[in-house]
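Shift notes (night). Ran NAD(P)/FAD-dependent oxidoreductase while the centrifuge was going.
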Amino acid sequence: MIGGGPVGENAAQYAIQGSDRTAAIVEAELVGGECSYWACMPSKALLVPGSVRTLAQHMPGLAEQPPLDVEAVLARRDSFTSGWDDASQVSWAEEQGIEVVRGRGTLTGPRTVVVGDRTLVARHAVVLATGSVPVSPPIDGLAEALPWGSRDATAMHEVPGSILVVGGGVVACEAATWLAALGARVTLAARGGLLARLEPEAAEAVEAGLRDAGVDVRLHVDVQSVRREDARATGEGHVHGGAVTTTIDGEELRTDEILVSTGRRPATDGLGLDAVGIDELEVDGRQRVAGGDGWLYAAGDVAGRWQLTHMGKHEARICGEVIGVVAGGGDALDVVGVDEDPLTQVVFTEPEVAAVGITHAEALERGMRVERVAIDLAVAGTALQRDDAGGRVVAIVDADRDVLVGATLVGHGVAELLHAATVAVATQVPLSRLWHAVPAYPTASEIWLRVLEALRTQRRAA
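Came back to this:
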């Protein structure tokens, strides 16, 4: 496995479990990867305290809340990253029979990977699990200003007094949320809108939430230039020098720091794909690389299908199973691939956004006869959890098959409601049967009954 993040770990584990096969993980940084140290875990650790404080502010008897204790929040974040020490994850790998090889792996021929002065030759397969790297827009003076990237934001050791967040995607919205909660004066600037790939209700709610938190949200604007006084490489998570002056649509904005979060691309540089005749990574539903002669696989961000840890781990499990089946003399087609599996995602802003499957726009693009239901997230369970809860639920139905193909929830704690919709979308249970899945009262899950009721009402009116 070239890459020791969650994807490489899962692929290795599934490829060798229950057998006498061996595996090696090649990792140049920390075993556990981006998710464990610079993305999922630290970002959620930074977001949760603010979410808890906001929830308390909406509950009678708890409304007066002190500011967050920044030092305590950062210390808790550090505990989830193990202080950026991967010893425990290396120990886990070794307990599974997986060797950890430190360094950068490069393909030099079929099943052959060179790491420094060591050559590894695989008996069965090589898996590419190198993840993705951030991309930065070609803005005048931006690179010279040494802006923060997502790693600086999740590993920050000091909260800037003021910061400009450039971008309108998930990472930008989440970072703006926790930075504002920790006391920074935040401006968010995006060339388009927010969360462009989700239902419009999600973008509208997140924008309103950011504004309520004091974030200066500027959408459909052009960041034209960046200038920094005394830019210095002060280290990850520290303010990188003097004040930053950014020109946005001709107006100058002065902040202590600037964070760039404008997307990522597959990390394929230096992998040596040309040495094995691969021009571009393309994978099938079983993670086999086209042109790889059956021994080369790719999973996670580098495979180009999804950029979400849980989806990458799902690909890795499929990949590992395929390798195990083929190594045992079986057929890769005996393993169910990921071709039709629905995308699930959560945006941990205030309010949260949780989504599965496809949006209304995507369903129309696919030529489906679509029914769209949008209702308030308002049942006894949500009202009990938080006063003035608010929120929306959007359900997308393939009318010809009478199955749910997409759902988006916006509101407090909706991440924990998502899996019910995921099961419905993934298994394609007819709505007539879902009617008999009775939600407990008084829980937030009762919203799914309200969705089905709204759909019935909508059909009767048609």
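The longest strand covers residues 403-411. The chain has three domains: 6-32+86-134+265-334, 143-262, 351-461.
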